[in-house]
Amino acid sequence: MASSTLVLGGYIAYSSANAISGEVQGRTFWILLSSPYRRGLVLISKYLVAVAAASSASASTLAALALSARVYGVEVDLARYLILYTAGTVYLASVASLGILLGAVTLSPRAPWTAAGMVIAMYFVDTLTLDTRLERLGAIALTRYHDALGIVLGGECQATTWRC
């Protein structure tokens, strides 16, 4: 579960940052900005495309889980997994916003790799500082707020602490 969060989060961050910096490097972004559309609208539309990709990835994974559980006759509490993949979509949307922000601010060809690296670094900071003296450092990691195991076993999100 954690590896899929890491890999899919890195991919969403990479593709979101590449949506901006790739067009800048290909010299098509300046043509887009010269159109009558507002710059904020262009960024929001790119963000919404990234969120749609994250949502479709979560929905297809949930559908595959439900289908495979039915085929193999395994009892699965789909309500808990629906909560899990909904929280996962929120996590992926926040990773997409990180990628869009990094791509728009730096306009560098290194932005996609930097965004993916930041997601991977946040994962390791969260993992390595959990239950240590440096646990406060892990608060900067987006994965700290997506507790997949707690959702599957407990079936709930704690809205008061923003931890799912």
Automatic annotation (TrEMBL):
Transmembrane segments: 43-69, 81-105, 111-130
GO molecular function: ABC-type transporter activity
A cellular-component GO term for this protein: plasma membrane
UniProt keyword annotations, A-Z: Membrane, Transmembrane, Transmembrane helix
Presence of keyword Transmembrane: yes
Pfam families per the UniProt record, alphabetical: ABC2_membrane_2
Domain of life: Archaea
Protein's name according to its UniProt entry: ABC-type transporter
Species assigned in the record: Aeropyrum camini SY1 = JCM 12091
